[in-house]
């Protein structure tokens, strides 16, 4: 993975996209199925050579780019606290995961099983969501602290929604790994913020032309 502001912007966009979708499902019980397919597909794209190919093209990260810009550029009192909390929590858990080779293997094995099952069911089928959600529970949830998702209990209590939320948090971990591989860090986000914003704006402008 090339260390560049472009790749860092795209990885962050993917992370913000997963966080925004978690919030949407938690409060409204729904999400865009094309966006869900993009995020789930990223979990199965371990052989991809570029970050664009992980997500099937930058067009599929439009929502994440918009969310990234809204969160970074807005005054503090206008920032979406839920989305920010999910992003910060995922970045923290990814760092803990990278120190646990045994858990990384368990995680990869679970994703491999889901990937093979998806060939028969399709990658957004509820069986695949259930498998990926279970993988998240058996790995990332064990690292602690657990990510507490806010929302409408009528949606959070639905098993299919819960599995989708866990799957999207897993996709967030994938994006956090890409962020790190592209040279991302807490300090980089602070000191290269303007460069990342400029990259995200440029990519988004090209998408909507």
Automatic annotation (TrEMBL):
UniProt keyword Ubl conjugation, yes or no: no
One cellular component term from this protein's GO annotations in UniProt: cytoplasm
Places the protein is found: Cytoplasm; Cell membrane
Keyword Transmembrane helix included in the entry's annotation: no
Swiss-Prot/TrEMBL keywords: Cell membrane, Cytoplasm, Membrane
Membrane topology annotation: Peripheral membrane protein
Gene3D superfamilies according to UniProt: HflD-like (1.10.3890.10)
Pfam families: DUF489
Family to which the UniProt record says this protein belongs: Belongs to the HflD family.
NCBIfam families linked: PRK00218.1-2
PANTHER family: HIGH FREQUENCY LYSOGENIZATION PROTEIN HFLD (PTHR38100)
Name listed for the protein in its UniProt record: High frequency lysogenization protein HflD homolog
Source species of the chain: Ectothiorhodospira haloalkaliphila
Lineage, opening ranks: Bacteria, Pseudomonadati, Pseudomonadota, Gammaproteobacteria, Chromatiales
Gene: hflD
